[in-house]
Amino acid sequence: MTNSDETTMVRAAEVSVAPDTPFTHRDETPMSPHGAAPIFGHYGEKPRWRGRIHQAAFFVSIPAGLWLMSIADTTAAKVSVAIYWVSLAGLFGTSSSYHLYAYSAGAVKWMRRADHSMIFVLIAGTYTPFCLVVLPPSWGIPMLAGLWTIAVVGIAMKMVRIGTDKNQKSGSWLYIVMGWTALAALPKLVSELGWARMGLLFAGGILYSIGAAIMGTKKMNVRPASFGYHEVWHAMTVAASACHFALVAMVIR
Questions:
Q1: Whole-angstrom Cα distance, residue 34 to residue 32?
Q2: pTM for this one?
Q3: Residue 116: beta bridge partners?
Q4: Are residues 234 and 147 in the same domain?
Q5: Where in 50-127 does DSSP place strands (E)?
Q6: Domain that holds residue 115
Q7: Number of domains within the chain
Q8: Residue ranges of the chain with pLDDT lower than 50?
């Protein structure tokens, strides 16, 4: 038997045990650039745009965050912007690194957990400027403490339990709870921001929610080989974060 025949048999064996996923069929398990292991393990082949949208957003977030820091006019504003900036760049950086550069089984496992955990960090980080700058301390401090507590709990759930398909969605319901926490302080936020600015806050929340629904239902699989439902979700997160970024820029001056 030739080396070529042996390689073919090994790859056939790998494909035979790989479960079907939304991203690939059993006969489409991709290989790493070195031909050593399937990319993303049993999660399947990556569409060509996978990770590229968040990679671009990461590079944009660096100068954008520097600009926010330069216009923040109080200590509270600067601190809150720094936290928000780190959470925003951290999410896009982690997501793009996971989707573009994780090849080994270990890298996929831990980067995937980090990717999902960073969603909690971004939600809490996005709320930080509103809690420290917009809302009075009697409202903002308890709300901020609650959000970061939920974020820590959510991260723990993701890091510990996401390793199996059965537990993949553990803690995901907390994303929705955290994301719409603004409703608990709606009267106060409206009085401080006005309905026009609240429109940006709600627009971002709605875009995130629609994107999450698309991700959850796996609809809008536009071009599975290049731009699937996961890419639609990533595009929605960038649009949503742009709405919230614009609002943060308004409230910190």
A1: 5
A2: 0.81
A3: none
A4: yes
A5: none
A6: 47-251
A7: 2
A8: 3-43
